[in-house]
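Hi all, a correction to my earlier message: I attached the wrong file for Entericidin. Here's the right sequence:
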Amino acid sequence: MQNRSFRWLPALLVALTMLGLTACNTMEGLGKDIQSAGRALEGKADESDGDESGSGE
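and the right structure:
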């Protein structure tokens, strides 16, 4: 009886492992997207600093 109740355990472990690996890849991609957006925003801020310095004259 005990053997039958734990038949699902290996399948559960495989499913949780796959879910964990997928989450790692997703978070890595999200980090790269956020980093790219930050660089683009920083570039726009740098451009804006150059434009405003000459516009007051």
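Sorry for the mix-up. The longest helix spans residues 9-55.
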